[in-house]
């Protein structure tokens, strides 16, 4: 498929007809937008906006999302803006309304099959599927050590997903001498053909040894076994070059615009 066709398929199946990313959340249409709605510990935000959205409609839609966030007492609300979304100045309008942009990421997609080959792990490293609370704790520890951020929210989300809806969710942690040194997860979206790779991170002293690549290959094999055609990643500047070398193609960028009431 051409890149434009893959992006159109992604927009239609993963954004316009998005599915909830976990238990206790719902996806709803709000005029020209599609958003996910959940509790304060869930991801709340806009995942799709109509390509016909004009300047007047954009301002009205932005105001409606601010009102929604405030009425539900959410600590934050995200508008996930893609580089091909319209109107062209939508980012400027979000900033003017109080949304704060976070670093942009590259939307990368690759066919699953070429990524399923074996990748050797470094000596002394094992991959452990995350299937229970103890595994979720190890995953959160690896995340904290790799990214230098608090992993408590991730721990809550993974534990909840494993308890209530584990069937379309894959999580892994890499252990070196029993210590968590890398982790990653995958969201499977039945009926879309896309599996999303999330959270791949390795602690500094273990980078450059093939762990990231091994985690991609392991998840690709699972996606292939379940009949998925494409892997999708919202990649940071650190991971994007690795993924491009593995065969991923950039379809654009995505920028999280975050609204936090009272700030």
TrEMBL record:
CDD domains (UniProt xref): NAT_SF (cd04301)
Domain of life according to the entry: Bacteria
Domain N-acetyltransferase: 125-263
Pfam family name, one: Acetyltransf_1
Stored Gene3D superfamilies: 3.40.630.30
Protein name in the entry: GNAT family N-acetyltransferase
Organism of derivation: Streptomyces durocortorensis
Organismal lineage: Bacteria, Bacillati, Actinomycetota, Actinomycetes, Kitasatosporales
């Amino acid at each position: 498929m051409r890149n434009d066709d893959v992006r159109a398929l992604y927009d239609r199946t993963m954004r316009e007809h998005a599915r909830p990313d976990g238990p206790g959340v719902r996806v709803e249409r709000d005029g020209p937008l599609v958003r996910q709605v959940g509790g304060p510990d869930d991801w709340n935000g806009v995942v799709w906006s109509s390509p016909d959205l004009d300047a007047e409609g954009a301002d009205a839609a932005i105001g409606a999302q601010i009102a929604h966030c405030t009425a539900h007492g959410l600590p934050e609300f995200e508008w996930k803006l893609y580089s091909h979304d319209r109107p062209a100045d939508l980012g400027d309008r979000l900033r003017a309304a109080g949304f704060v942009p976070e670093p942009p990421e590259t939307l990368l997609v690759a066919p699953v099959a070429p990524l399923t080959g074996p990748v050797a792990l470094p000596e002394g490293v094992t991959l452990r599927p995350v299937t229970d609370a103890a595994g979720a704790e190890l995953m959160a520890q690896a995340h904290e050590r790799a990214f230098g951020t608090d992993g408590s929210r991730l721990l809550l989300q993974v534990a909840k997903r494993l308890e209530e809806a584990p069937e379309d969710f894959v999580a892994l942690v890499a252990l070196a001498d029993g210590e968590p040194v890398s982790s990653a997860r995958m969201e499977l979206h039945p009926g879309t053909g896309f599996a999303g790779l999330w959270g791949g991170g390795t602690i500094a002293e273990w980078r450059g040894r093939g762990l990231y690549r091994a985690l991609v290959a392991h998840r690709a094999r699972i996606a292939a076994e379940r009949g998925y055609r494409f892997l999708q990643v919202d990649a940071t500047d650190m991971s994007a070059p690795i993924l491009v070398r593995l065969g991923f193609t950039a379809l654009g960028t995505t920028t999280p615009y975050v609204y936090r009431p009272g700030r």
